[in-house]
Amino acid sequence: MQTLYVDVFFLVNFTVDILAAHIALRFSKIRGSVRRIVAISALGALVALADVLFIEALFISLLLSVLYLFLAGRLITGQARFFRRLRFVVIYVISEVVIGGTVYSAYSLLDRYIGEEGFSAVGAENRSALVFSLIILLSIGVFKLMILLFSNLSNEKTVHISISVAERCAEADALVDTGNLVKDPMNMYPVLFVKPSFAERLLPENVITLHNIDALDSDYRKRIRLIPVSRGGETHVMTGVRADRVTAIGGWGKSELEVTIAIDKEGGSYGGYELLLPSAALEDVV
Q1: Residue 274: band (very low, low, confident or very high) from pLDDT cuts 50, 70, 90
Q2: What are the tens digits of pLDDT across the range 208-228?
Q3: pLDDT number for residue 4
Q4: CA gap 134, 123 in Å, rounded
């Protein structure tokens, strides 16, 4: 007859759920609330405990798991779009399987080769808690290292962009920026910043300089936006333009983006690129 230590079982599942939620949020690029993560992880540990103690039917167990995942995805991701929420749930499940399998396998190996003799100074319950704690701490360290590694690899992410305005079209590589949170106040679209050197290939000079606007035809005048941007504690207004089509081109194919173009007249470039694309514009693309 096997003995189940409820407190140890709850603690292990609670810790694994927190770690899995953290990893899923990082890879899904979603900001999560600490209180919601803790609450959902505690609920997940209770669900796992109830499944072991009270539920024998496989169908009920699967249904309870699906309901828990739906609730976790809904509460932790907040107002995220459906595909981002689905991505979070998928990564969350994979993370739980990988972490849980790692913890169980490591515990089985330690229990087989160390057993009671290696922890003779502590009781059986304390021995289990100690071994699980050591394994979870090791798992957290390994996954933290993986997150840092993948984060560093993705810091210089770029994507090829094609922009069409009226009868003009221009293409260039854009640097993807996670810190670009500027929105077009008219439609709340993310803002794609372009340097004047790129804008000259796409727009009339009157639009770039905002000079002699009356000389432009009505189509161009309707496209012009004023985009407020905060920099260094001060608010600047940039010239914005609504494009006919903005397309991201990558290994996944072509996808149209809902963005507004803003002309950044400050000197320099974006790490050698003429375009700076907010990562929010690619949320449901890559």
Answers
A1: very high
A2: 888 888 787 888 788 888 888
A3: 60
A4: 16
